[in-house]
Amino acid sequence: MAESHVSDELWEEFHAVVNMTSRELADWMVVEASDGGTAVAPDSPELEVGEQVVQILGKRRTDLTPDDVDTMRHVVEQVRTIRGDEPEPEAYDDDVRRVLMSFGHDPLKPSQG
């Protein structure tokens, strides 16, 4: 099996922006998918990414695939684009919060750093 190489920077950034546990994210996605009139459609790309994030969170760094690394980069880029460089908890409108949470980032959760 080809081992994918995740840079220390990407590994740390991913785990900094993904501030939900795999269980929190999985539970949230179940609720979100069953809640008909939400910002994130049940078959949306965001929820697909969320499912990939749950899988990545359950893996050791050495078990990541090149697709996992691509997903990690995508999540970091998306969250940083939406949030900017402001790490402090901030109340966004509900739609924006739901999109961020589909990437495993709860903007209302205090940072651990």
Textual characterization of the structure:
The chain is mostly helical and 113 residues long. Helix content is 56%, strand content 0%. It is built from five helices and no strands. The longest helix has 18 residues, at 66-83. The mean pLDDT is 83.
| Structure classification | mainly alpha
Uncertain regions spanning at least 5 consecutive residues:
none
Treating each run of at least 4 consecutive H or I residues as one helix, how many helices?
5
What overall form do the CA principal axes indicate?
Answer: globular
Mean pLDDT: 83
How many β strands by DSSP?
A: 0
Q: Please indicate the percent range of residues in DSSP E strands (runs of 2 or more).
A: under 5%
* Span of the ends, CA to CA: 34 Å
List the helices and strands and how they pair.
Elements: H1 8-17, H2 22-34, H3 45-57, H4 66-83, H5 94-102
Helix pairs in contact: 1-4, 2-3, 3-4
Features:
56% helix; 0% strand; 113 residues; single chain; globular; mainly alpha
Would you summarize the structure shown here?
It contains five helices and no strands.
